[in-house]
Amino acid sequence: MADGDLTARIERSVGAVPASDWDALAGADNPFMSHAFLTALEDSGSVGEGTGWLPLPILLEDASGTLLGAMPAYAKEHSQGEYVFDHAWADAWHRAGGRYYPKLQIAAPFTPATGPRLLMRDPAYAAPLLRVAEQLVEANGWSSAHATFVEEAQAGLFEQAGWLRREDIQFHWSNRGFASFDEFLATLASRKRKAVRKERAAAQDGVEIVHLKGDAIQPEHWDAFWLFYQDTGARKWGTPYLTREAFDLLSQRMGDKVLLILALEDGRPIAGALNFIGGEVLYGRYWGCLVDKPFLHFELCYYQAIDAAIALGLGRVEAGAQGGHKLARGYEPVATISMHFIADPGFRAAVADFLIRERDGVANDRLYLETRAPFRKG
To answer: Per-residue pLDDT for 150 more than 80?
Structure first.
């Protein structure tokens, strides 16, 4: 596609783009849009042939070949690893005699973390990037394109192009200038404060908890975490999304952005939580354990994440998808956004009607959850 002095092309991997060019657009704040993260998934075989995630990054260049815009896009053969559920849409499309897959997914694979999905030098490049995504869908006879966990600042650009907006709820912790966990704890109602203290004491009893970053994370730590990850992945998804090599590559390429929290019993890792460090956010991603210890999940994934965010001076913890149990632990409900292009006009109208009703329900749920927050009144 050419648009005046602009040319769009589709590559077969993010790795085909020089890291400096990609990262100049992606910026440094969101680790999941980085060249290092996306190519670690490619090079480890976590995405690519046979995974249902075929990389098709969309690139926008000027006449000199300078990269002006990009989108991390994938041809998807299923709806796993997205955390925005469209299985009902796929079923409806199949019942009507259509083929829902492949579809185009604009996302950080396996990562329900909000961030930019249009990587560009100027907002003016949003429209041509989205037009290419639409043309790719239409030219291949695909059903749809989906951009998941889109930051609010970019959602309007998708809406201007006619994409449909969908909302859901996550639970995030906000750092209101706390100097310590105890300062945060003081903002909770007395009953909730006591409950958190009891949970932390029970989880930490007989356990040493360590925070590891960069070169401090050794292969044996990843070997231990791989066992935790496999156990959780097998129970939640059937098959873990990431390969063992992915963790080595992530550590090698972006170790300064990785925080691995391990629980040790007699010096042996029994549980762990993997986090990524952004410019303003600590992102909790994976957790697993080999020992069923009360409240250890809450300790490693939520309370230790708060400790780490305070120590690192970060403004927020995003502890992953879903999880209403986070509310009682000081994590507050926030809206997440996905944007959708449906090629067929009739199917698009049906989805648009559904989304209006769904958004109303999500908004009401969020209002109710806000009334259940554990913070002191007044």
So the answer is: yes
Task: For residue 375, count other CB atoms closer than 10 A to its CB.
Answer: 10
Q: Which helix (H) or strand (E) holds 168?
A: strand 164-174
Q: Which amino acid is residue 282, in one-letter code? A: L
Report the pLDDT value the prediction gives residue 233, as an integer from 0 to 100: 63
Going by C-alpha positions, the residue among 98, 100, 24, 97 that lies closest to residue 59 is 24
**Which whole-number Å values give the CA distances from 234 to 82, 229, 230, 240, in the listed order?**
17, 8, 6, 6
Residue type, position 305, single letter = A
Tokens of 352: 């648009």
Q: How many CB atoms lie within 10 A of CB 368?
A: 10
Q: At what angle do helices 244-254 and 35-43 cross, to 10 degrees?
A: 150
Residues of the chain with CATH 3.40.630.30: 2-169+334-371, 176-314
Cα(37)–Cα(308) distance, integer angstroms: 21
Q: CATH 3.40.50.720: does it fit domain 2-169+334-371?
A: no
Write out the CATH class of domain 176-314. alpha beta
Q: Dump pLDDT digits (tens) for 266-322.
A: 999 999 999 999 999 999 999 999 999 999 999 999 999 999 999 999 999 999 887
H or E stretch at 77? none
Q: Which of 293, 302, 328, 281 lies closest to 113, judged by CA? A: 281
Radius of gyration of the chain (CA): 21
Beta bridge partners of 59: 9, 70
